[in-house]
């Protein structure tokens, strides 16, 4: 449970394990339920397009996301994959929403084992493919 008193739903952990171990999903979007008491799965997707993922990020509300990011640094090393945790908190989101998401993040983040990189996004430039690739390939976030 987080500082805000928000719990992580079992379905959120199951979906994450399906992504991580079963490669069942490309990405998962997590949101707070209507009562703001639990972090639940908002949507899962098998769409391989990073642009499809970006289109799902709301322009004016917060959410969390986990993305199985595949990339290639050079042809000799082949493809790599890292699981990325996104905290999406646009500048124009309601203050209350930003506060609850910020204080609830740790509960979800700690529950998800196997995350390689954390990315905080407040606008689309911070979560562009190029920016994410740069952070993932340097091993920094």
UniProtKB/TrEMBL annotation:
Stretches assigned to the ADF-H domain: 5-137
Keyword Plastid: no
GO molecular function: actin filament binding
Record flagged with keyword Cytoplasm: yes
Domain of life: Eukaryota
UniProt keyword terms in alphabetical order: Actin-binding, Cytoplasm, Cytoskeleton, Nucleus
InterPro entries given in the database record: ADF-H, ADF-H/Gelsolin-like_dom_sf, ADF/Cofilin
CDD domains linked to this entry: ADF_cofilin_like (cd11286)
Signal sequence range: none
Single GO biological process annotation from the record: endocytosis
Subcellular location per the Swiss-Prot or TrEMBL entry: Cytoplasm, Cytoskeleton; Nucleus matrix
One cellular component (GO) term of this entry: nuclear matrix
Sequence similarity: Belongs to the actin-binding proteins ADF family.
Protein name: Cofilin
Gene source species: Naumovozyma dairenensis (strain ATCC 10597 / BCRC 20456 / CBS 421 / NBRC 0211 / NRRL Y-12639) (Saccharomyces dairenensis)
């Amino acid at each position: 449970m987080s500082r805000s008193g928000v719990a992580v739903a079992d379905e959120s952990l199951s979906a994450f394990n399906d992504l991580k171990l079963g490669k069942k999903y490309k990405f998962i979007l997590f949101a707070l339920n209507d009562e703001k008491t639990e972090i639940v799965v908002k949507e899962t997707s098998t769409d391989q397009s990073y642009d499809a993922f970006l289109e799902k990020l709301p322009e004016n509300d917060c959410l969390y996301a986990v993305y199985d990011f595949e990339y290639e640094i050079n042809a000799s090393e082949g493809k790599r994959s890292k699981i990325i945790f996104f905290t999406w908190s646009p500048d124009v989101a309601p203050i209350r929403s930003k506060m609850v998401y910020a204080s609830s993040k740790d509960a979800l983040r700690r529950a998800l084992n196997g995350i390689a990189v954390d990315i905080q996004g407040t606008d689309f430039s911070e979560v562009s493919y190029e920016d994410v690739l740069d952070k993932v390939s340097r091993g920094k976030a």
